[in-house]
Protein 1
Amino acid sequence: MTDTDIKKGLAGVVADYTAISKVNPETNSLLYRGYPVQELAESCSFEQVAYLLWHGELPTDDERAEFEKHERSLRPLDERTKKLISALPTSAHPMDVVRTAVSQLGTFDDTLLRPGGVTDANLNEGRAMYLLAQLPAIVAFDQRRRRGEDLVEPRDDLGYAANFLWMTFGEEPHEVVERAFNVSMILYAEHSFNASTFTARVVTSTLADVYSAVTAAIGALKGPLHGGANEAVMEALDEIKTADAAEKWLDDALAEKRKIMGFGHRVYKNGDSRVPTMKQALDTLVEHYDRRDMLELYEALETAMGERKNIKPNLDYPSGPAYNLMGFDTQTFTPLFVAARVAGWTAHIAEQLANNALIRPLSEYNGPDERHVG
Ligand SMILES: CC(=O)SCCNC(=O)CCNC(=O)[C@H](O)C(C)(C)COP(=O)(O)OP(=O)(O)OC[C@H]1O[C@@H](n2cnc3c(N)ncnc32)[C@H](O)[C@@H]1OP(=O)(O)O
Ligand SMILES: O=C([O-])CC(=O)C(=O)O
């Protein structure tokens, strides 16, 4: 075996089929079940897109109404979840809180103990809906308690995006903000075999349950090379402060061999298909909040990175400042990604189970030759 036989980071390896989404770097496009993500972001709600990812088709009006009713009924947090979150230190990262809360949700589900209960497709669909409905409440409550604010109960007269913002900020969002947030949730919902989704599929392939797979996926998403980058983008923009400081900041960072968060991608080498749509949403927020300074800073760093390295932004680059303008704390950004991506993770869990093979690659041993104790 030579070095070239080792696929470091599994780069370029096709590990399985998927019918859920197609990431095409050649055409710089992303399809969810065949639909261009830009079209879905333009005309659908996050709930419709979750339905599409799970069922393969967009819902009819009746199916949509039923789906929304079910999702809304599952929003309120259990007292045990409120107690658990309240007991966790506010010094802990919100991703650790979300991971812990999802893990606890698994302990409430006694259907897991039924014969065949872990792999039952109907039960797993119910679990996916439960997680989709609960995550906004978990994320919103955690941000509020860190600010010394009381929990805001969900509303069943609001759609997913409006209710999420309502529970976080305690007021109904302006339509511009609701729209931008809905777009971000759709763009974050699914992206084929990214690291967190692959993690969920690895865990599922052992026939472990949905909660275990999602808890593990949250762990994988936390890192700054993946979902954690949206938070890191904001930290960088906060550090740079103004557009005229961007070039020097970048030169210093590159000289220190730092990775510039929100830039580059394992699959897209010519720009991330989702960035133009999220950038448009960011533009609407810049106008709404009258924050041209943010846009200038955003564009200055993007331009400098293009000139120095010819590396383009990924989705985390525009979504970081967008979430900042909406009023989210920087550490809440990656939990927002979790809330959206759980739609994709659970679609992949179902797909993995429908045609399962244990995921277990080989390694080439390069440690000491055989030796003996004593
Ligand atoms: C939603 C998402 O999860 S999107 C990804 C979010 N992550 C980030 O934004 C983190 C910053 N980006 C990165 O670290 C990388 O671009 C990754 C991890 C996303 C992709 O990495 P890989 O496909 O493994 O590419 P790799 O890291 O090998 O980069 C190739 C070259 O480009 C450079 N490069 C890639 N991205 C960056 C970056 N953001 N800043 C500086 N240099 C970079 C690498 O240093 C490397 O240079 P070299 O060949 O001189 O060593
Ligand atoms: O596909 C990837 O490797 C990372 C990514 O953009 C995502 O998960 O949205």
Protein 2
Amino acid sequence: MAGCDCPGGCKPDTCSCNYDYRGLGLEWLEDSGFAYDQNGRVTRPNNIGITECNILCKCSMECQNRVVQRGREVKLQIFMTRECGWGLRTLEPIPKGTYIDSYLGLVITRAEAERREAEYRQSGLSYLFDLDFFEKSNENSMNCGMEKTLEALELIESPETPDSESAETQHPALLQKKRRRATRFGNSRKRRAKGPFTTGNGRGQRNQKEVEALSEYEEIGEFRVKQEKVPFGYEEVGQSSRTATRNHSVERTSEVSAAHNLERSTSTTPEDYRLRSYSLDSKDMGNVTRFSNHSCDPNLDIYSVVTGSHEIFTLALFANRDITAGSELTFSYSGTAGLERAKEKKKQLKNRKNKKGGEDTELFKCRCGTTKCVGYYWN
Ligand SMILES: C[S@@+](CC[C@H](N)C(=O)[O-])C[C@H]1O[C@@H](n2cnc3c(N)ncnc32)[C@H](O)[C@@H]1O
């Protein structure tokens, strides 16, 4: 993690936290200013990550490049909707581009998320959110923003110093690219661990008994990290692979599932790649955003925002249009680029319905009631 030291305050052209995408030849992103305007409203599309100034920067909290970390300012209310259970609405008008709040929850491995998803199907209520922004950027051509950034960054990365930890190589796009490159050149040092409960800290491997003997929590600086047994074990040799999220406040998540050995492993197969991803679960820990329902015509968009460590990004919700007081606040569970996937899912579910009686079809039936409703959502 690196901080900026801008004399006289941060300026988009000189602040090292603001990567100048225009300089990389990305004509599609005309605005090379900060991600936020003077009023703190987001100006970029949400298919590209935002890096805010952080705790190591010399600028104050008033800096134009700090919005999400200042927290929620909009008055919200949880209410009972007609069709979708509890929902979230605004008590005041919200101008387009305004930051609403961030989707918070317990960080768990993808494998654990899959286990919980099966459980949540019984109740029909799920609070899981996949942290797959970079994963989807790689595999989904619709998410061209990050893909183009990756291509452009490839041009400036120095081949002599691929492992340098400079500010530039700490950029999430580059971190991801480094991982991709490691995969491409087959220099992965990951190998499958011996047992299902084995964890590794990068310097050695712990057996199941040792894992059970570990204290439940570790205090690591400002982070509170919970060690968890993970159903799938991978050992990463030679790299520390700890992950954590900020303990923001009582309302915010204070626990983190640290599946040490899944983090930073370089993928060898699509299955490895999938399993090393993370998800958020806000069922037991989270904030008001956990009550935000899905809509096929949402008034909020989700942005991946880095406010500190690049290990875990924040899922920040911004208004994608002017919103009137009293309106329900919704986002697309399928992602901005996910409508096609939702339609595809609809087809698959219909086929399954013909074979099995259609329980799943009902489970993901969308009740957003908008004119753009595609009938089903997929989360
Ligand atoms: C993150 S929670 C949202 C809050 C939830 N409505 C509640 O009462 O706690 C997601 C769950 O809300 C319901 N839901 C959200 N959007 C929906 C929609 N468009 N159609 C049907 N159900 C929806 C589903 O049960 C889904 O699993």
